[in-house]
Amino acid sequence: MNRVITSTESLLNKILKCSATISDQKVKEEAENWVANHLKTLSAIFQDQPKQTGALKYLQKTWSNNRLQKKQWTKNLRTILKGIKSYKIEATNSFVISPNTQNFVLGNSILSQIKKTDKKIYQLGSELNYNFDFKNCWNSCGILMRIILERALDRKSADAKRKNGLKDKINFCLSNNVFGKSVAEALQKLNHSTKITGDIVAHDSNLLLEEGDITIAIVPFRVLIKDIFV
User: How far apart are CA 119 and CA 95, in angstroms?
Assistant: First the structure.
């Protein structure tokens, strides 16, 4: 999220220096790159937030115009920036990572329980811990967490396993009360973190993950895994 915030602030600052209608080619190219790099990710994050969704649709619709309307682009970028910062704060504050558990994602006790029933998740979890401890493999962590999440949901519910794709599996579990309230809340957080980070690595060619993108998902990730395996 830090890169998205920086990119949005940079574009906003350049637009603020423009006249009422923007024809500067460099600014328009940055606007085009912003839409190309961030639209998909932000659309997923803001899918339940009408103001931010409306702002994104406006930017997507108008970036290719010969002249951009400074007032409207400023207004909508500020709306999006406010939403991004609120999302980051909420994600960080909702599930806080304890300082003494920073070197791994899944503890040995959890991995020992997982090993008894699913050796593949055990191996993936061990590799996840290794990459997280290495502190320079955030994209690998995002992919591994996404794979583990999908496989864990398959184990939790045979009906979820029959669904295609992680999005459908998550939606099924949330809409059919597969989990209790607290675990469902954790799954909802993962829907807006682990799923998205995995999608970013797999599909968004220009975006890479940072440490913060992973750490905001660790505690809800543990909550879900413990519910299924411990």
Answer: 28
What is the C-alpha separation between 42 and 47, in angstroms, rounded?
A: 8
Nearest to 91 by CA among 183, 194, 177: 194
pLDDT at 95 over 60: no
Cβ atoms within 10 Å, residue 133: 12
In this structure, the answer to whether residues 70 and 109 fall within a common structural domain is: no
Q: How many CB atoms lie within 10 A of CB 148?
A: 25
Rounded to an integer, what distance in angstroms lies between the CA atom of residue 21 and that of residue 225? Answer: 52
pTM above 0.85, yes or no: no
| Distance in angstroms (rounded) separating the CA atoms of residues 120 and 35 | 38
Q: Are residues 37 and 133 in the same domain?
A: no
Structural domain of 207: 102-229
